[in-house]
Amino acid sequence: MTDDIIEQIKQNVIQGRMDKEDEGFDGGMVGQPGVKELVQQALDMGTDPRRMVTEGLTEAMSIVGERFEAKDYFIPDMLASAETVGEAMDILAPHLAKSGMATKGKVIMATVKGDLHDIGKNIVSIILKGAGYEVNDMGADVTPERIVAIVTEEKPDFIGLSALLTTTMMAMKETIESLAEAGLRDKVKVIIGGAPTSAEFAAEIGADGYGADAFQAVRVVEELKQRS
Amino acid sequence: MAKKGLLGGSYKLLSEDDIAQIHDTSMRVFEEVGFQVNSDKALAFFRGAGAEVDDHIVRLPREKVMELLARAPSEVTLYGRQPEQNITLGGARVYAGTGGTALNVIDSSSGERRRATLHDLKQIAKLVDGLENIHFFLLPTYPSDVAVENVDVNRFFAGLDNTSKHIMGGVYTLDGIRRVIRMAEIVAGSADRLRQEPIISMIICIISPLKIDRNYGDMIVAIAEEGIPIVVPAEPLCGATSPVTLAGNLVVQNADSLSGVCLTQLVNPGTPVLYGSVATTTDLRDLKYLSGPIEMGLLNAASAQMAQFYHLPYYATAGMSDAKVIDAQCGYESALTGLLCALGGANFIHDAAGLLDFALSVSYEKYVVDNEIIGMVMRAVEGIRVDEETLAFDVIKQVGPAGHFVSSRHTRKHMRTEQYHPTLSERENFEVWEADGKKDTGARARERVREILFAPGYRLPEEVRKGILEEIQGIIY
Questions:
Q1: Helix (H, G, I), strand (E, B) or coil at B58
Q2: Rounded distance between C-alpha atoms, residue B35 and residue A62, angstroms
Q3: What is the CATH number of domain B6-14+70-382?
Q4: Cis peptide before B411 (omega within 30 of 0)
Q5: Domain A106-227: homologous superfamily in CATH
Q6: Which of A77, B90, B380, B466 is disulfide-compatible with B75, CB 3.0–4.6 A?
Q7: B210-221 pLDDT, tens per residue?
Q8: Residue A77: which of B404, B408, B412 has the nearest Cβ?
Q9: ipTM above 0.90, yes or no
Q10: How much is the pTM?
């Protein structure tokens, strides 16, 4: 029974089916339980939440990643799957804490000062959450001062900065300098992304990593985490 | 998901009055000019219908022409060997596929041109079988390594044994026609079955201006007697075999192809027949036939309106290029003429894949390029669906100001069908493209060609194949 329900959670994450209202990737699934209902049902049955995460959610997202790489899945498919994982993690969080399984890390996400283009950053937030990170999304046009304040207060492991414009990408450099001035630069890893940026630019401004797309962003975060 | 059979016809370049004038002028040609019929068999049918015959020149009153046209079916279904490959021609439904008959193959990497062989024909059939947007297989090349008396059977066998799409082809001898039909009967299961579900069809041209050739006339009679679907297209060339004006060309094409339709209906009333155009312009500096001029798109789109006026299924010509290699010209010429024709609602757009070099040559890579063009063209034919679901007010309301639609369920639901998803076009970032070897369209097309040709392909069932090889003479395999 436990194996069955974990398999069902996995399949529904792959399908990106949040709840029973969702018709699913191939359609015709309205009325059948989605991830939300299945996770609750599994908890009621006494299923180990850690197994739900590792064998259900994580395995499912790795299959979603493969499908995305193979160009079968588009970004909206990937987001739908990641959102179901985010929702599952919200339900499971208190139970995981009880069983001693911490989140993988805390990430602050922000689109930098002067830039209002935040769709890419929002997507990265969803995918990071889907990968098991705790994400605090500060929105767009976020000044260096606000970032310094939140890093002081929340002590995140990572900051993700985005910019779409060549005119605003220099605000990333400014943000990193502000963190250094406040004595916080070695307390947090900074990763950047956005159309005009590159790995070279990241190195130039002293960021710790660069993600060309949402999946790469997650990979970079995982690599930095392992190295620290 | 490959789209086909969608309704075109949104592009109407002829007004109702234009159509009436082209019709009236064509009827005056039937009555006052007449057409030359050099086949005694064909001539006998026209004489039997009460036509005025004066030394091989046949004149028909317009009432008689219209009476004969009314006998022809307004819809013809050409069958593939899988139900999803059947294509029903008529109205403004649009399909596109290959055409011929080219003599050469251009190797797009070396730019060298060589004679096409029977092996090429088999390989191209396999390639086309794997290209999702090509809706039928019109035998595209003439095998230089086969004796003429065996060309018909070998061409059709190459098609039938390598793709399950519908096979159409030009034919070269009366005996060849008979053997090809017998072979198709074996594949279909019986003679009756082939007539009910024709998996092959044949093309016999009318010679512009206003001439039914002796051999071609005999062959039209033979095919119509057999009840096999037949196309009777005409190929008037502006300034050479028709007036230079496009309207004058349309009159000649119309009268020519209608004379062929009339003949088929005299021989065998109700014979499935396609009215057809291969009209184009010539380069009047040297009288070269041209396969990619924009006027060809106009002519073939206009004839779609004429076909709809006569309620006849329509065989059109578009999507070729006079370029020699996979370059910008080969893309823009093919795309422009193909798009005009498809938006005009042409039923059976042939020559829309593979052809270069005044239709003298094919290129394997060009089939892949044209597969992409046809995919895009079919999306254009589909147009924009406007209803409550697609207007999406509820979704706009749900997302609200400054939100995004990337993670909306509505996006997921419609993104695969609302947009054409290319299989060839370059859409990577510069860095990714650079790291992947800076491949151009030709190089990417070459990869798809290899992928399809190295994979297992379609084959006739073994017992059918055996039956054919035992009974039909002259097949090289």
A1: strand
A2: 71
A3: 3.20.20.480
A4: no
A5: Cobalamin-binding domain (3.40.50.280)
A6: B90
A7: 999 999 999 999
A8: B412
A9: no
A10: 0.90
